[in-house]
Description:
The chain is of the alpha+beta class. The chain folds into three domains: 108 residues, Tumour Suppressor Smad4 (Sandwich), CATH 2.60.200; 128 residues, no CATH class; 81 residues, no CATH class. Helix content is 23%, strand content 30%. The chain contains nine helices and 21 strands. The strands form five sheets. Strands 4-3-8-11-12-1-13 form a seven-stranded mixed beta sheet, with no helix packed on it. It has a six-stranded antiparallel beta sheet with strand order 7-6-5-2-9-10, with no helix packed on it. It has a three-stranded antiparallel beta sheet with strand order 14-20-21. The longest helix is centred in the middle third of the chain and has 17 residues. It is globular.
Amino acid sequence: MRIGVLRHVKSTKIEVKIGEGKYKVVGDGFRALELSKGDAVVLETNTANRVRVTHKGNIVGNYKEVKIGSELRSDILRLSNLAPKVNPREYHGDLQVSNDGALKIINHVSMDYYLGGVVECEGGPGHTETFYKVQAIISRTYALKYLDKHKKDGFQLCDQVHCQAYHHRQMYTPEIARAVAATNGMVLTDQKNRLIDAFFYANCGGQTCDASYVWNNSISYLTPFKDTFCIKTNQARWTAKIPKQKWVDFLVENYDYPIFDSVHRAKVFHFVQEDRKAFFHGPELGIPLRDIRHEFKLRSTFFSCYEHEDHVVLEGFGYGHGVGLCQEGAIEMGRRGYHFTQILKYYFPGVVIRLMEKSDYFQHLDKTLEDF
C-alpha cells in the first residue's frame, strides 16, 4: 500500500527517527546513509524543488526523491512534522519523500499494518474483537475498492477521512492486530462478485439512511431500516440552536424559500422527521437536508425542529451520514455476542463475505464464509 500521510498540512520540514530496526536512506537511487534505532534525519524543502537531507547537523545532499526503507515490514519509523508543528506519528514500513512545493510524504506499508492503523483510528479503543473484525473487513473492502483514489497524486489512498483515517500505526489495542489477522483476505462483495461500497459512520440514531439521500443514487444493499442497537449511546441524540434570521437567510438566499407565502412561512421553523427524509418539507422545495447539515455543521440530517424565542431549535439523532455500517450499533451487537458475519449481514443485507486472492485484488476465491 502507498498511503499519502500528513495530507492535512503543507509540510516543509520533517524529522524521521528510527523506532525499531535498521533503515537505509536513498537519495535519487544512491545510498546516502544507514540508520539504526534512535538515529534521525531531517528532511526539508529547498528552493530548487529538491529535498534537503540533514544528519546530525550536516547536509547529506539535495535530492529529487528520498526513500527511507527497511527490509522488514515490521520495522518502525517515528515521523515528526517540524514546520508546521504536528504531534509525532509512528508508522510501520518505509517512507518516500519528494518536493512538489511542499513535502509529499508516502508511507509504503503492508495491507495488514495499514488496516491495523485504520481500525484503531476509525474504531477507537476498548471494544470487542468481534467489532474489530467487522471494522477490518469493512476497511479492507473500502481500501481495495478505492485503491486508485489518489492515483493522480502518486499514491493510492490518503490518511484523512476523505479515504480512511490513518494517523499512526496500530499502537494501543492488541485485539485489533488479532482481528486483522483472523479476517485476512476477507472482503464484502455483491451477488455479482464486485466489491461493495463499504460505507460506515458513528451512529445512525435509530434508522439507517438511503444512499440516494446522500449521494443521489440508491444502492441495493444499502436500503434504510430501523436499528435499535445504537439508540442508548451518547451520540444517539443531539440538539443545536440556530438564530432564526440566519436560518431564514440560508433557505431564502440559496433555495428561494417562499417565505412570504403564508403556508410556507408558518412551516419555516417547524419540521418533523419520524423517519429519515431527503428534503426539508418535501422535494418540491428542492432543499436537501444534507445541504442544511453541511451549512450548519450538524451531526446528521436526521432531525426535527421548532422555534423558541429568537432561535430555531433542532433535535436530532445520530452522528454521520447514516449509510451502511453503524459503528456504535455494531459495537453493541459485538457486546451481545453476535458473530461478525451476522453483524455485517445485518447492515449490508444481501452481500457476500468472500476471501480475496492476495495476488489479484479482483480475483476472489469461490468460497463464502457463512459457516465461519
